[in-house]
Design a protein that fits this description.
The chain is an all-alpha fold and about 230 residues long. The chain is built from 5 helices and no strands. The chain has a single domain (about 1-220), classed as f41 fragment of flagellin, N-terminal domain (Up-down Bundle), CATH 1.20.1330. The protein has helices at about 1-65, 70-90, 100-125, 125-135, 140-225.
Length: about 230
């Protein structure tokens, strides 16, 4: 009876561990998704600001040197900026009501417009008027605001990634402990089952020997009483 009660308790613990492991795995998957999503957002932000920097650097290099080779990185960056900005938008769930994203899109349009207008001035009137446009700092202020917004977003993502990673590590450790406990309980259940089977076999063996002993005792008694008759 005690052994069966222990077996029932072990089975109950195993069932509880099964549900606990399932919940832990769900939390682990959620934490993993948080880490993955944060990494995607950081990657999208990094790609976008790198393209904006390449576009500005290429334009500035062309204005200062007149070398058309500087226009290649500018042209390539400008062609990819909108796609990169859309990727940032998608990475943040496509939330059109985000104030930061709305500002980012407006500032990006202003900055690209300033770069294009300055190049047009350079081609029509020469380097000096174009450089004078640059010195108004209109484009610089736009770029500074873009860098500020991206910097704040990247800082927030760094914190989110740190928190998500810590959560994933905690859930992973819990999952390992639950798995280890499940293995130990399984071993205990197997040992208990083995002991129950062995005890039952011994009990059956003892019960099987009792009739034989009874018959042997009856036969002996009969032989002792026969001479007296």
């Amino acid at each position: 009876m005690v052994h069966r009660l222990a077996a029932s308790l072990l089975i109950g613990f195993l069932v509880g561990l099964f549900f606990l492991a399932a919940a832990g795995q769900s939390r682990l998957n959620t934490a993993n998704e948080r880490v993955h999503d944060s990494q995607l957002r950081q990657q999208a932000l990094g790609e976008f600001i790198a393209l904006m920097t390449d576009a500005e650097s290429g334009q500035r290099g062309y204005l200062l040197t007149g070398e058309s080779s500087y226009l290649q990185p500018y042209t390539e960056a400008v062609a990819r900026v909108e796609t990169a900005l859309d990727r940032v938008h998608e990475a943040y769930g496509g939330n059109d009501e985000s104030r930061e994203f709305q500002e980012l899109r407006i500032l990006t349009g202003k900055k690209l417009g300033e770069l294009e207008d300055t190049l047009a001035v350079f081609k029509r009137r020469g380097a000096v008027p174009a450089v004078n446009v640059v010195r108004t700092d209109v484009g610089k202020r736009s770029m500074d605001e873009i860098s500020r917004i991206i910097g704040n977003m990247r800082l927030a993502e760094a914190r989110e990634l740190s928190a998500a990673t810590a959560q994933w590590q905690a859930d992973f450790r819990l999952s390992r402990w639950v798995s280890a406990a499940g293995v130990i309980l399984n071993i205990g259940l197997v040992l208990l089952a083995t002991r129950l089977v062995y005890s039952d076999m011994r009990r059956r063996a003892r019960q099987a020997t009792k009739p034989a002993r009874s018959e042997a005792g009856t036969g002996t008694t009969g032989r002792r009483t026969n001479p007296g008759n």
